[in-house]
Predict the structure.
Amino acid sequence: MFLREYHRTKDGKRHTYFALVESQQTERGPRQRIVAQLGGLTRDQQRSWRRTAIFHAAVRLGREGLFA
């Protein structure tokens, strides 16, 4: 899992939005699936979501003991 950053210009102002994305291997090759649209995030919120994504990726690989 990782955070994907999106940019949009509205009324001359640039806005940044985030989505939590999961990579999956399919027969047609690697694909990304959006798990959650997070919207605009502060730096602290970005850091928290990145840590959450890293934790869930580690649990998925069977390394949850690293975070105990």
Observations:
- Residues 23 and 32 are 4 Å apart (CA to CA).
- Residues 43-60 form the longest helix (18 residues).
- The first strand starts at residue 2 and ends at 10.
- Helices lie at 43-60.
